[in-house]
Specification:
globular; 6-stranded mixed beta sheet
């Protein structure tokens, strides 16, 4: 055997030895609580591709849509805690839903555990053709709503979601009643916005941005602490005069009983995947900000966010049975 073959073999063995081995070749499934094509699904597939050479088994994405993402969390809860079942989900499943639903099929603190945060994003305050082009700011929009109270409706992807409460908080801060129209997902809400059925909609960037460049939609503000790099001329809600700030995120969860050592291995693999150009580009195409956070810090943030939302939801009186 030639020397270079010995070196190549040694390198290959070393690389294999460095891979997490908890799965022992078994398929690793990433659950997604929403249908194919949405931000959660696309992000999960980008991550799965990035993990294929960093975990010791094939990585598959499994869509288990239903109940605004809650079905997938319930499936995760009862899955083997061996690192072979993970979930890519927006934060609301563990920060907001515990306060907006009277009954959940899981306990956000006891049944699941955070593994890593992947990316963050604000909500966009968008208007369509129903709103005159003379309306250029959120203050203009509020003035228009007050003059046309029968048109003061806004859409969002679901009841009890962050966009739902952003609209409610905006109405309260502006002193105007905004009626919420709940849709089954962002796509139908944006379609009605474009079609002029509703005046305003609150959605994540991936839902509205494709229609902004065409001029079909106008974004008047973003809910985050700073402007989006994709919309440098669009102010934040705080800059617009309304003290509202929300930042949502996508993260990876696992069954709560997953051992710490396994969590560390998965977390390390995710961090390595997110350093690759393919994953960075995939996240950028979704108009998200890559913002990795390890499990321990994410756990603290989840507790903080949940505590932030609890009084807001309680004051609103909003509570869903199911």
């Amino acid at each position: 055997m030639q020397r270079r073959d010995l070196i190549a073999g040694a390198l290959a063995w070393t690389s294999a030895a460095m891979l997490p081995t908890y799965a022992q070749g078994k398929p690793i499934r990433i659950l997604v609580g929403f249908p194919p094509g949405g931000s959660s699904d696309v992000l999960a597939r980008v991550l799965a591709e990035g993990l294929r050479d960093k975990l010791d088994g094939p990585v598959l994405v499994e869509n288990r849509a239903g109940a605004a993402g809650r079905v997938a969390v319930e499936i995760l809860k009862s899955s083997p805690a061996d690192g072979t079942t993970l979930l890519v989900t927006p934060n609301v499943a563990v920060t907001l839903y515990p306060h907006t639903y009277k009954r959940l099929g899981y306990d956000a603190e006891r049944d699941v555990k955070p593994v890593a945060r992947l990316a963050t994003f604000p909500q966009l305050i968008g208007v369509g053709p129903k709103v005159p082009t003379s309306v250029k700011t959120v203050k203009d929009l509020i003035t228009w709503f007050k003059a046309n109270p029968n048109l003061a409706f806004y859409g969002s992807s679901a009841q009890g979601s962050t966009p739902h409460f952003v609209g409610q908080m905006l109405g309260k801060a502006a002193g105007v009643h905004l009626s919420h129209v709940s849709y089954k997902g962002d796509a139908p809400a944006v379609q009605d916005l474009i079609g002029g059925q509703i005046a305003m909609s609150v959605n994540p960037p991936a839902a509205q941005m494709p229609h902004v460049s065409s001029g079909r939609l106008r974004v008047l503000a973003v809910s985050g602490p700073e402007r989006m790099k994709h919309l440098p001329d669009v102010p934040t809600l705080a800059e617009s005069g309304y003290p509202i700030q929300t930042t949502d995120w996508f993260g990876v969860l696992a069954p709560s009983a997953m051992p710490a050592a396994t969590t560390q291995k998965v977390e390390s693999a995710i961090k390595a995947a997110m350093a690759t150009a393919a994953v960075r580009e995939g996240i950028e195409k979704l108009f998200l900000t890559q913002d990795y956070l390890p499990a321990a810090q994410l756990a603290k943030d989840i507790r903080s966010e949940s505590a932030h939302w609890a009084p807001i939801v309680k004051e609103s009186g909003f509570l869903l049975d199911d």
